[in-house]
Every structure is written in structure tokens, then in C-alpha cells.
Amino acid sequence: MERIFGRPIVTQEEMRARIKELGKQITADYAGKDFVLVGVLKGAYAFYADLARAIRIPMRVDFLVVTSYGSRAKTSGKVKIVTELTEDIKGKEVLLVEDIVDSGLTAQYLIKTLAKKKPQSIKVCTLLSKPERRTVDVALEYVGFKIPNRYVVGYGLDYQQKYRNLPYLAVLDMEGEQE
Ligand code: PRP
Ligand code: MN
Ligand code: MG
Q1: Which of 36, 143, 147, 165 is the most buried (most CB within 10 A)?
Q2: What does the pLDDT look like over 85-135, one tens digit per residue?
Q3: How many Å separate Cα 161 from the centre of its chain?
Q4: ipTM of this complex
């Protein structure tokens, strides 16, 4: 595979192995439950597709389109649901799928907002977590990898809406760039 740029922070091999583990765990935890896997787009699309196929129980799929960063590298602090869920989650076991939890604002906002729809439970599975950047406390049930405070792109994650299609996670060299 030709490198578009950057060095992988997590290799495709490590990623595959970790997603398989997460899938097994989620399969065990949600077996027999009325389970909905909710992808938080756009960032989660690649992880979601792989994770969903590693889960071996009947489940529903649904999605939210949410934005807080827009084209910027820093959070605006305001989370906006651009596109709502398509189905009622009342009484269901909801697992939100995120590509990354950074400040924690998006996950916190979604948990709070979706709780109003009265699901049976609502938890978070994130591929990546940057604990150093957390400004709000949010419980993360499943975390793929904890990563240092570097700007990463690829595998769904963007910089100014680009690089989401890189097949691996790369550290973006921000030298000379305005954050
Ligand atoms: C990014 C990322 C998470 C969120 C994490 O989404 O995909 O959803 O920010 O940051 P936080 O913990 O500081 O809230 P973004 O708003 O960039 O939208 P995108 O998924 O379309 O890239
Ligand atoms: Mn996102
Ligand atoms: Mg983004």
C-alpha cells in the first residue's frame, strides 16, 4: 500500500486485532438484548463498518450525523445534531460508536440528549481516546486505543474534512499549521 503521508500511529494489523476483541466483548455483553448500534458520523464510518461485522448477535443499525469541529482542528464547544436517528430507541440498549473521544463534549452531549428518548441503556464505544484532552468526565465502556495528544487522521478521522479515506491512522504533522 502506497503511503499517502504520515506514519501509522496504529497499524492496520493492530487495529484488526483490537476490533475483533471489542466485537467479542460487545457480543457477550449484549447477547439477548434489544440492541442498537448507533454510529456517530461522519468520523465513525470506517470503524463502525468493521466493528459491526465483528459483532455476532442480531442488532439494529442506526446513525446520527453530528458536528462540533466543522473544518477546524479545535472544538467549537457546541455540538450540533445535523441528522437524527431514523428509529425510536425507547426501551432499547444503545451503544454509541465514535472514532475518537477528545474533549468528551460530543459524547457527553449525545448521552444527555439521547437519554431523553428513554433508552434502556446508553453506552459509548470509541476506537480512540485522548485522555489528556478531556475537559468533561464521560464514561467510556469500550475503548480501542488510548493515544497521546497528537492530531490523527485517517480511518474516518479528518483534518478539514480530508484524509478520512486513509486506510490507517496517521499522525498529522501540524508544523506551520494554525490549529
Ligand atoms: C470529531 C470526532 C468526534 C468528536 C470528538 O467529530 O469524530 O465525534 O469530534 O471530539 P470531542 O470529544 O472534543 O467532542 P467532528 O465534530 O470533527 O465531526 P466529524 O465526525 O464529521 O469529523
Ligand atoms: Mn465525529
Ligand atoms: Mg472532524
Answers
A1: 36
A2: 999 999 999 999 999 999 999 999 999 999 999 999 999 999 999 999 999
A3: 16
A4: 0.98
- Pocket around ligand 1 at a 6 A CB cut-off: 40, 42-43, 67-69, 75, 98-106, 158
Q: Which residues of 142-152 are buried (b: 16+ CB within 10 A; e: fewer)?
A: bbbeebeeebb
Residue 10 CA from chain centroid, whole number: 15
Task: Work out which ligand 1 atom sits closest to the CA atom of 65.
Answer: 21
**13 alpha carbon – ligand 2 mean position (Å):** 23
Domain 8-168 has what CATH class? Answer: alpha beta
Amino acid of residue 37:
L
Q: Which ligand is nearest to the CA of 135?
A: 1
**133 — phi, psi (to 5°)?**
-95, 0
Residue 102 designated active-site:
yes
Q: What is the pTM of this model?
A: 0.93
Domain map of the chain by residue range?
Answer: 8-168
Tell which one of 82, 100, 110, 162 to mutate to probe ligand 1, the residue whose CB is within 8 A of the most ligand atoms: 100
In terms of DSSP bridges, do strands 152-153 and 169-171 run parallel, antiparallel, or are they unpaired? antiparallel
Q: Which candidate, 7, 6, 46, 74, places its Cα nearest to that of 144? A: 46
Question: Which listed residue (29, 102, 137, 173) is catalytic?
Answer: 102
